[in-house]
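Q: Sequence in, structure out?
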Amino acid sequence: MARLFDGIVEAFHLIISLDPDLLEIVFLSLRVSFFAIIIATLIGVPLGALLGLKPEKKTCLINKIIFTFMGMPPVVGGLIIYLLFSRQGPLGVLGLLYTPSVMIIAQVFLATPIVTGLSLLGVRARGKEIIETARSLGADSMLATWTVIKESRLAILGAIITGLSRVIAEVGAVMIVGGNIAGRTRVMTTAIVLETRRGNFELAIGLGIILLLLAFAINSILYNIQKGGQGN
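A: Exactly. Output:
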C-alpha cells in the first residue's frame, strides 16, 4: 500500500512538472484517437443514417454484421490490420506498419462500427415519424433525410463520444500494429503496460490518472448530452 501511495505522489509530481516523456505520450494518444474518431464519424454517421432510414428487412444482414463488429475484440481488429499492412500483406508496400498512421487506421476500424450502429439505432428510433412529417410539409427526400439527422443529433453525438471513449482506452490493437516504440508509437495505454512490467509505477500511475480523467470527461459529456436530450 505504501508503494502505491508513493507512486501516486510521484505521479502527480510528473503531471504538475509537465514531464516531457509524459506529455509526449499523452499528446500522441490524443492525436491518434481524435483523428481516428473524426474519420470514423465521417464514415459512420452517414452510413448509419442511410441504414436507419431504410426498411429493416432490407438491411437485416448488414445490420447484423455491423453489430457483430461493434463487439469485436480489439486484438482481433489489430491482427486484421497487421496482416493487411505487414510486408507480406496486400498493403505492405505502403510501409505504414509501426507508424501512427496505421494506429489511426486500426482505431478507425474499431470505432466505425460503433458510430455506425449507434447512429443507425438513433435514426431508426425517430426516423420514420420525422420523415413522414417532413414529407407531408412538402420536403423533398434530401431535405427530409437532413431533418431526420438533425433531429437525431443527440443520439449521433452520443455515438461519436462512445466511439471516442472506445479508442482512447484501447491497448491491444495499437500495440500490435504500432509496436509500442518510444518516441514514435507509444501511447498512454501501451505505455502503462510497458512501465508496469519495468516496475516504473510512477509513470504508469501518472498515465493511468490522466487516462481516468479523460474517460471521466468523455463520459461526463455523454451524460450531459443524454440529459439534455431527455429535457427536450
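DSSP finds ten helices and no strands in the chain.
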